Amino acid sequence: MGQQAPKAGKAQTAKDCQAERARLEKLGEPWRELSAQELEYSFLNMAVCAGVDSTNHDAYKHLPVRILLVLHGRMGRFIQETGLENSFAAWDSDPAHR
After folding, report:
1. Angle made by CA atoms 16, 71, 76, in degrees to the nearest 5
2. Into how many domains does the chain fold?
3. Interatomic CA distance for residues 86 and 83, integer angstroms
4. What's the CA gap between 94 and 90, in Å, rounded?
5. What is the per-residue pLDDT across 34-55, written as a single tens digit (0 to 9) for each?
6. Domain carrying residue 52
7. Cβ(46)–Cβ(21) under 8 Å?
8. Residue 34 in domain
9. 5 in a domain, yes or no?
10. Does residue 79 lie within any of the structural domains?
11. How far, in Å, CA of 8 to CA of 46, rounded?
């Protein structure tokens, strides 16, 4: 597979944040090389980095949202392609699951 994403919460320093952001930019959106779990870790790390790397705050501002949208789209395609949308709709119709 592609380059391994750090575990969630590992990007604790500004240097770590800059390295992770550079890695994501190099891979390019929609980050097909990354698994859903790697995307989730990257989402969490970039959200944390907005506060950790105050010098480059704006560079992290929209990246978590873009990652989340890509992940959401991938999950939506999986649900449609596997026929799980009807199962989900039935499950979601029960107020106890909300």
Report:
1. 175
2. 1
3. 7
4. 7
5. 999 999 999 998 988 888 888 8
6. 14-85
7. yes
8. yes
9. no
10. yes
11. 10
Q: Angle at the Cα of 51 (from 20 to 44), degrees rounded to 5?
A: 50
Distance from C-alpha of 29 to C-alpha of 38, rounded to nearest angstrom: 14
pTM: 0.74
Structure tokens at 58: 């704006």
Q: Which amino acid is at 30?
A: P
Residue 80 token pair: 């449609």
Distance CA 34, CA 5 (A): 8
The candidate with the shortest Cα–Cα distance to 15, out of 47, 43, 56, 74, is 56
pLDDT digits (tens, 9 = 90+) for 81-91: 999 988 988 99
What type of residue is 49? C
H/E element, 71: helix 63-82
Quote the tokens at residue 11: 């990007």
For residue 2, being part of any structural domain is answered with no
